[in-house]
Specification:
The structure is a single chain. By secondary structure, this protein is of the alpha/beta class. Helix content is 46%, strand content 16%. It has an 8-stranded parallel beta barrel with strand order 1-2-5-8-9-10-11-12, surrounded by 6 helices. Strands 3-4 form a two-stranded antiparallel ribbon. A two-stranded antiparallel ribbon has the order 6-7. Helix 8 packs across helix 9 and helix 11 runs parallel beside helix 13. It is globular, with a radius of gyration of 19 Å.
Length: 337
């Protein structure tokens, strides 16, 4: 008989969605990190980006709330006190991962829709990142809601790319996180977003099944069902949770190791409150938790502003944000904490 616990991919996937823990997405490209630095007056240098990641990775109690951290190509090569970041994280019991896609390009013949590049040379990159200590990887595609969007062709093209990436990861011994982000941009209703998430995930999981990707060694990173930011529609956390869970139940096989949510343009408070409601009603079909970037980092960055004397204060804010988000992943968050 096959022993589930003997499969390293299954073990790592299970650890990444451990109860009460989530994944910090610290995989912003240098360009994106620099934009965030500029917004609060921090100089845009490699050393400042290293200091920022060091602040996060050395924060007290991070191992209580984080199961993993997604790194960027620059970051996986950086260090703190001579210790490479992947080794530093591993020493704290936090699993290092790596973003491996190369970003978005226009989809030929389909204005307004995108596909993701990065399959070329992926096998070699995965091998290198594995030597650095990465145990999982992430690939993001984006789905836009609009007039005649998302198209079936866009959903199929992105699903095929995500499947090829997932197969390459599992062959290299890394757990793939597949992230088909349904964008918040647009004037769509929450109902339209729920439909788009459902269809996106149905196409994706049909394709993954067709190519025999091991779902027990794979994690889904998904959007929540939200009204478009220019829609004028307001939705409560309960309505968002109900629509999100309906979409997942309609499209995600029970074999998937777990589901992590992206914050996708929400404020830290919104992302926390919505996750809390999802956790309350999810029905426990899969382990559910978070994989947030700005929703964890934004208040911390504003407190730090690049100054060494602010590190401890910023780390305390980060500890609080991790604690709140962890509680939300269990359905136990209260804004009055």
């Amino acid at each position: 008989m096959f022993n589930f616990l003997k499969n390293p991919l299954h073990v790592v996937a299970k650890e990444l969605v451990a109860k009460g823990k989530g994944i910090l997405a610290a995989d912003e490209s240098s360009k994106t990190a620099d934009k965030r630095f500029e917004s609060v007056g921090i100089s845009t240098t490699e050393e400042m980006r290293r200091k920022w990641r060091e602040l996060l990775f050395t924060a007290p109690d991070a191992e209580k709330y984080l199961s993993g951290v997604i790194l960027f190509d620059e970051t996986i090569r950086q260090s703190s006190g001579g210790i490479l970041f992947p080794k530093l994280l591993s020493s704290r019991g936090i699993i290092p991962g790596i973003k491996v896609d190369k970003g978005l390009v226009d989809m030929p013949g389909f204005p307004g829709e995108k596909i993701t590049e990065g399959l070329e040379g992926l096998e070699n990159r995965l091998s290198e990142y594995s030597k650095f200590g990465a145990k999982f990887a992430k690939w993001r595609s984006v789905i836009t809601i609009g007039e005649n969007m998302p198209s079936k062709q866009c959903l199929k093209a992105n699903a095929e790319i995500l499947t090829k990436y997932a197969l390459a990861c599992q062959k290299a011994g890394l757990v793939p996180i597949v992230e088909p982000e349904v964008l918040l941009d647009g004037a769509h209703t929450i109902q339209k977003c729920e439909e788009a998430i459902t269809e996106t995930l149905k196409v994706l999981f049909n394709t993954l099944a067709e190519f025999k990707v091991d779902l027990k060694g794979l994690i889904l990173k998904t959007s929540m069902a939200l009204p478009g930011k220019s829609s004028g529609q307001n939705a409560t956390a309960k309505e968002i949770a109900e629509a999100t869970v309906r979409a997942l139940k309609a499209s995600v096989p029970k074999e998937v190791a777990g589901i992590v949510f992206l914050s996708g343009g929400q404020t830290p408070v919104q992302a926390t409150e919505n996750l809390n409601e999802i956790a309350k009603i999810s029905g426990k079909l899969w382990p559910l938790t978070f994989s947030y970037s700005r929703a964890l980092q934004e208040p911390v960055l504003k407190a730090w502003v690049g100054k060494d004397e602010n590190v401890k204060m910023a780390q305390e804010i980060f500890r609080k944000r991790m604690q709140e988000t962890s509680a939300a992943s269990l359905g136990k968050y209260s804004s009055g904490r």
